């Protein structure tokens, strides 16, 4: 990890503000509006309802965001990476069943990430209705809002490839202005009703839950929870900015958010009975409390902040998917590193899937009010799953009783939030839950498909490369077999003690003997240094069977063909390999012959004939192979697009047990029974 992320600096804090706090920082745009909706209309709101609601917001941010995530969860970092998958990686050895909270929680936060950009950007753009920006006048058309929102989201997803560092530096100054704006106008309004400061006391938070002024009872927590939905993203983004920068910036962010909620609350109390407002159930007090031309400034800043809120979820999704790939929860995807910081990544596949789903959500719901009804349900599931995993982590570092008390404390609170949010299911929560189940299904197929395949694979599916050295050398010298290529290359991982998949040797020797002058078995290992580029060579006490281990930095392209040509040149110049001077070539001094790369693809056909597989196992293993086919191909992964590549299909299980019930009945010779049969 880059050292600048390990220490506190102004630049680091600026990037942190630009990347991490967009989601939770835009909650003042819609939380109080949701609470007004719970009351029915402005005229039904009393000071006790407002003070109690803001007290609930204050203590929710204190308990969930500050105490659970900033103070406790961020101690559970996996090589400075955060998020539910990083947490699972730390505790997975404790018990096998922990895979389920990891899969469920990860799927839920990825699903919620599709709704966050939609609701925040749409709500901000809707604020531009009937506003004038110089010569430009915005209409009251919701259709125009959807078009503008779509364009904004498209631009946002398009700039992701430039990296979160570049984006964070450009967004950081905007977020400084945004949080300053929240604080200033929060203070300006609370001065007019200083009694709102009573909300700091937890007494008012508890009282409002059981007060008759609260018409929805415990279900008010469904709206309150919107204030802390960015907490999980904060934990996930830790690897992008470093925990020290979050420790420094969060108190500032927390203070400005609370001041703004106090200001909105003061404005609502003072204007709830006004003729212009008392019959309204859908108004935004954040905009209403801004005087004169400051409202337009607030709308513009809110629009920019909403874009940044989307950024926080997008970068968090990259991190989660990267960790999921490492844990074998998801298929391998091409991951790019736009900067020299390993943790700052870009995954095009994830980016555009998120883009398509997010824009679809915008047009499906059509307005931010409908989106808000569905917002936050999935993330409560993630928080509960994080608490389960956090309990396992705390057991290693605290007394078991203490760890259990902490887990039960957070779990009880989050369970109440989940119950109170279930009412959102029929109002749109089913959309995010459907997306969550879709992601969970893919993870289930990939992870358990791998597990079931490994279960059926026997030791005989792996062989020692050392046992085939003599055969390979003999085949290479056998002039009765046509020369297949000069250099035959297999992209395969060699395990300890030179263990290699039988399918590789099957391809060379059994399918149709492939004669080559040199046989190459290549493994690519990614390292933490951005531009590291080195390799090791093991000739296995031969002159033409070579085990090559590449060690490439995370920013180096995996152009195996280019690297391998260099390796051959080096070995020829050193006299380790014989020159491979081709008979015909455009290069006069060329010493390297031709290459053929073989990619072996698993063939699921034998799943049908293998009667030992249950129907569930067939579905899991077959689904895993299908996912592998439609995701990143080895050709693009290893940069072999312009190389001579042969793709071969190989059965999953080359060796199968014999059928003990197969009995020889008769033997015929030219239509007659053999003598032994008469």
From TrEMBL:
Signal sequence bounds: none
Membrane-spanning residues: 49-71, 145-163, 175-196, 216-235, 247-269, 289-309, 345-367, 373-394, 401-423, 429-448
The entry's keywords: Cell membrane, Ion transport, Membrane, Potassium, Potassium transport, Symport, Transmembrane, Transmembrane helix, Transport
Reaction catalysis annotation: K(+)(in) + H(+)(in) = K(+)(out) + H(+)(out)
Superkingdom: Bacteria
Subcellular location per the Swiss-Prot or TrEMBL entry: Cell membrane; Membrane
Record has Transmembrane as a keyword: yes
Domain K+ potassium transporter C-terminal: 488-647
Matches recorded under InterPro entries: K+_transporter, K_trans_C, K_trans_N, Kup
Membrane topology of the entry: Multi-pass membrane protein
Residue span(s) of domain K+ potassium transporter integral membrane: 13-461
Family assignment from sequence similarity: Belongs to the HAK/KUP transporter (TC 2.A.72) family.
Purpose of the protein: Transport of potassium into the cell. Likely operates as a K(+):H(+) symporter.
Alphabetized PANTHER family for the sequence: K+ POTASSIUM TRANSPORTER, OSMOTIC STRESS POTASSIUM TRANSPORTER
HAMAP family (alphabetical): Kup (MF_01522)
Protein name: Probable potassium transport system protein Kup
Organism: Secundilactobacillus hailunensis
Record gene name: kup
């Amino acid at each position: 990890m880059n050292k600048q992320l390990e220490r506190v600096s102004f630049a680091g804090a600026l990037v942190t503000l630009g990347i991490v706090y967009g989601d939770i920082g835009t909650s003042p745009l819609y939380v109080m509006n949701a609470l007004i909706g719970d009351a029915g209309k402005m005229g039904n709101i009393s000071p006790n309802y407002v003070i109690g609601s803001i007290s609930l917001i204050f203590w929710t941010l204190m308990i969930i965001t500050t105490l659970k995530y900033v103070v406790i969860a961020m101690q559970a970092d996996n090589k400075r990476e955060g998020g539910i998958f990083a947490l699972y990686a730390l505790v997975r050895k404790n018990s096998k069943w922990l895979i389920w909270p990891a899969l469920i929680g990860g799927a839920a936060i990825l699903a919620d990430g599709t709704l966050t950009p939609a609701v925040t950007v749409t709500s901000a753009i809707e604020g531009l209705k009937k506003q004038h920006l110089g010569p430009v006048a915005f209409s009251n058309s919701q259709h125009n809002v959807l078009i503008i929102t779509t364009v904004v989201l498209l631009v946002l997803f398009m700039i992701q490839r430039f990296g979160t560092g570049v984006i964070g530096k450009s967004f950081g100054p905007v977020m400084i202005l945004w949080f300053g704006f929240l604080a200033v106008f929060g203070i300006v309004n609370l001065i007019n009703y200083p009694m709102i400061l009573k909300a700091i006391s937890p007494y008012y938070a508890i009282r409002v839950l059981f007060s008759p002024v609260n018409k929805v009872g415990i279900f008010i927590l469904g709206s309150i929870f919107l204030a802390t939905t960015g907490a999980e993203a904060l934990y996930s983004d830790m690897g992008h900015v470093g925990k020290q920068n979050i420790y420094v910036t969060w108190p500032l962010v927390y203070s400005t958010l609370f001041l703004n909620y106090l200001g909105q609350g003061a404005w609502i109390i003072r204007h709830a009975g006004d003729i212009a407002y008392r019959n309204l159930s859908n108004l935004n007090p954040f905009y209403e409390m801004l005087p004169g031309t400051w409202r337009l400034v607030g709308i513009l800043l809110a629009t920019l902040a909403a874009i940044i809120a989307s950024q926080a979820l997008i970068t968090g999704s990259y991190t989660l998917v990267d960790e999921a790939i490492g844990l074998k929860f998801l298929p391998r995807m091409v991951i790019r590193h736009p900067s020299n910081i390993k943790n700052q990544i870009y995954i095009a596949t994830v980016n555009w899937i998120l883009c398509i789903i997010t824009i679809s959500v915008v047009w499906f719901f059509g307005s931010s009010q409908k989106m808000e009804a569905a917002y936050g349900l999935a993330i409560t599931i993630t928080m509960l799953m994080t608490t389960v995993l956090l309990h396992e982590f705390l057991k290693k570092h605290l007394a078991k009783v203490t760890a259990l008390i902490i887990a039960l404390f957070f779990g009880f609170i989050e369970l109440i939030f989940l119950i109170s949010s279930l009412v959102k299911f029929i109002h749109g929560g089913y959309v995010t839950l459907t997306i969550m189940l879709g992601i969970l299904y893919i993870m289930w197929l990939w992870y358990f498909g791998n597990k079931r395949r490994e279960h059926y694979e026997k030791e005989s599916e792996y062989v020692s490369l050392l046992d085939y050295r003599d055969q390979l050398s003999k085949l290479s010298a056998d002039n009765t077999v046509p020369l297949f290529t000069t250099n035959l290359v297999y992209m395969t991982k060699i395990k300890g003690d030179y263990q290699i998949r039988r399918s590789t040797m099957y391809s060379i020797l059994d399918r149709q003997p492939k004669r080559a002058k040199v046989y190459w078995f290549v493994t690519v290992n990614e390292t933490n240094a951005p531009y590291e580029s080195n390799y090791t060579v093991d000739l296995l006490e031969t002159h033409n069977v070579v085990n090559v281990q590449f060690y490439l930095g995370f920013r180096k392209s995996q152009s195996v063909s280019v690297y391998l040509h260099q390796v051959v040149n080096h070995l020829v110049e050193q006299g380790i390999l014989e020159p491979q001077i081709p008979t015909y070539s455009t290069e006069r001094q060329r010493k390297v012959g031709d290459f053929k790369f073989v990619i072996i693809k698993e063939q699921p056909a034998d799943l049908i004939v293998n009667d030992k597989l249950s129907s569930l196992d067939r579905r899991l293993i077959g689904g895993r192979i299908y996912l592998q086919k439609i995701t990143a191909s080895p050709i693009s992964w290893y940069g072999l697009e312009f190389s001579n590549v042969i793709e071969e299909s190989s059965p999953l299980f080359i060796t199968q047990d014999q059928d003990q019930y197969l009995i020889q009945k008769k033997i015929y010779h030219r239509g007659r029974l053999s003598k032994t049969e008469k």
